[in-house]
Amino acid sequence: MRSRWKCSCRGAGVVWLWWVMGVAGVTQPPSTSLPHFDFHHRVMMDQRGAYFMLWTPMNDKIVIEVQVATLGYVGLGFSPNGGMRGSDVVIGWVDDQGQLHFQDRYAFALLTPSIDASQDYRLLGGYQNDTHTVIRFSRPWTTCDTHHDLQLTGDTARVVWSYDEHDPTSSERLAMHDHRGSRSLYLRDPHLAAPLPNPAHLHYWDVLSPQVRLPDDLPTLYWCKLYKIPTLTHKAHVIGYVPLIEEENLQHVHHMLLYECYLPNSDKHLDKFVQVNGAQCYDRNMPLSWSACNTPIVAWAIGSEGEMYPEHVGVPLGEEHGGATYFMLEIHYDNPSLKPGIVDSSGVRIMYTQKLRRYDAGILTLGHTVSPTHIIPPGQNWNTVAHCTAACTEKTLPASGIRVFQGFLHAHLLGSSISIQQIRNGREQPTVIKDKNYDFNYQQARVLKNEMVILPGDSLIINCGYDATSRKIPTFGGFSTEEEMCLAFLMYYPRVNLSGCYSRPDMALVFDTFGIQDLVNNDLKIFEHLGFR
Fold first, then answer.
1. Cβ–Cβ under 8 Å, residues 226 and 289
2. Is 41 a catalytic residue?
3. Residue 263 is part of which domain span?
4. Residue 196: per-residue pLDDT
């Protein structure tokens, strides 16, 4: 054992604390259980049900527990990109004598992670039974180890995990793990309300994919299908959802989105598709009218156990009640091994009630108009800026404004960051919805700890960052995943007559950039015929 200093960062100064710890980490006597702790989040990390992570965000730290189906060592950490290089990890195991070992390590290459001289994780306990190893620990959001620790924020975190069937041969040496992977998670989001215990007024609408057969020559499939709401005798509010994933297809269902569809004469244009099994999303065979289904009320990603809206709000169902009558389910399937014969009927269970909440919730879409006028040049990092002007909110919002309780940020494969700035009377307000580490493969709603108030006269700026360094040709805006978007969906109350607030560039300036010198009267009609709408 040796002594060392450990720093604790507080405010602008540094407080030095005396800490005694072995260089190889922490060991602890045998234990068979852990005291109860109220974990706010629980996710399955591996799609096989062998590795679960539980955590609770606190003001100054995060408390984590891993429950892994192994009698060997387990690892968990945080990575800048989802890979091993540069990751900040902990390793733990229970040896044959029942001794619990725990180490703070870091990976500077694709080699065994090195033991960190600054042990910034605190072991809270752990044990091993006949089937599982369980370890609980905590760490500060911000540590003083800026060399080897990743500082955790409200942005998307790439969480890496691993486990082996055997314990390490010594405290310093680790065998190559048998299983590993990564997950994107929001670590600092507040606790989501649990589903209600089947009250008499709660109804269920199961939106399930129609036995989709995954192709054995396509590693990734986006499948879309239209649905019509159940017959209602009175107005109803959607108050939450839970995923319904077929157990045998856990490894294939990656994420799901349920969109409201808004289209004049919707019965005429959409009802005929309800009995159709669906189509590949955003493919040439997808009906054009389905593009009107673009406002998500459900965003589920691997590991999420669902969501309940706050007790005072609900999303109305039915066009006659200010909601939507038709919805589109989009499921992202993964089949990297091209396994044949996979058929899936997963989906979501929508919970709704006719015992109405106080407020109708609405969804406000902000960002760049989905159009080829959204241009991202190749070979560089690029920012797209879109505006919702003060003139728009001044005309459409009530004097008391609207209150946002969650947000959903959306770009496609090139997206790297998205943020919403709010300007009031010429002064920028604190930014409450942002993600500097956006991951297209982790599409999940951001639940706000404190509601965001938007008043008439406020302006909103949506800033989307893209990494196009690997592209050789320009990327244009569109619905395909190979095209791009820059959108933010804000769920708010009370519902008002404003569903979207977009902007797009002046095409005269865009074409001038490409050397086009004459655009008569800035007339875009010719470009609309070419698809530049």
1. no
2. no
3. 202-358
4. 57
